[in-house]
Design brief:
Layout (H helix, E strand, L loop, with lengths): L2 H4 L38 H7 L10 H7 L6
Length: 74
Amino acid sequence: WDHDGQYFPIYSGSHAGRWSNCIECHTVPSNFSSFDCTACHEHNQADTDQDHNEVTNYQYLSSACYECHPRGNE
């Protein structure tokens, strides 16, 4: 199983060693398609909204974070 290659680089890059349990990102244990980016990242919605003023269809949702940042890059 290659989480980094198939889904998100959680074992490498800036995310390597920053977590110890799947539940830290996958907040619904029975549903691994559900995840939360904003729980770990220090993004408050007001600042994040302002940083994305120019992004069409921007939403403050983890699924939207992943859609635009699938490899975890800015």
